[in-house]
Amino acid sequence: MRRRMLKAKIHRATVTDANLHYVGSVSIGPELLAAADILENEQVMVVDIDNGARLETYALVGKPGEVCLNGAAARLVHVGDKVIILTYADFEESEVKGHSPVVIHVDATNKITYSPR
């Protein structure tokens, strides 16, 4: 049996922009993607702490410090909202016990304040 587990989490990032007319996705600063081991075009879930909205999209490499929701997702957030960005991965039962997700903490300007790496 395979289990879907949390792979990585960027905790309490601040939305820096919302671009309704972009094709889609969430643009995330390259330093955040690297620290959380999230690849460009990888599926992500974004949870808005301020309004409770949850959405799935894919990650794009943005500018340093950027967290910009694009396309239809831009209607679900506001600049300044705090969000949690999550990725999941499927693991074999034998891999679950040794798995620990990567959890990145950031400040109000999306600078990393804690990274387990």
UniProtKB/TrEMBL annotation:
The modification Pyruvic acid (Ser) is found at S25. Binds 1 pyruvoyl group covalently per subunit. Heterooctamer of four alpha and four beta subunits. Pathway: Cofactor biosynthesis; (R)-pantothenate biosynthesis; beta-alanine from L-aspartate: step 1/1. This is Aspartate 1-decarboxylase. InterPro entries: Asp_de-COase-like_dom_sf, Asp_decarbox. It catalyses: L-aspartate + H(+) = beta-alanine + CO2. Its cofactor is pyruvate. It is found in: Cytoplasm. Catalyzes the pyruvoyl-dependent decarboxylation of aspartate to produce beta-alanine. One of its GO terms (cellular component) is cytosol. It comes from the Bacteria. It is an enzyme of class 4 (lyase). The active site is at S25, Y58. PANTHER family: ASPARTATE 1-DECARBOXYLASE.
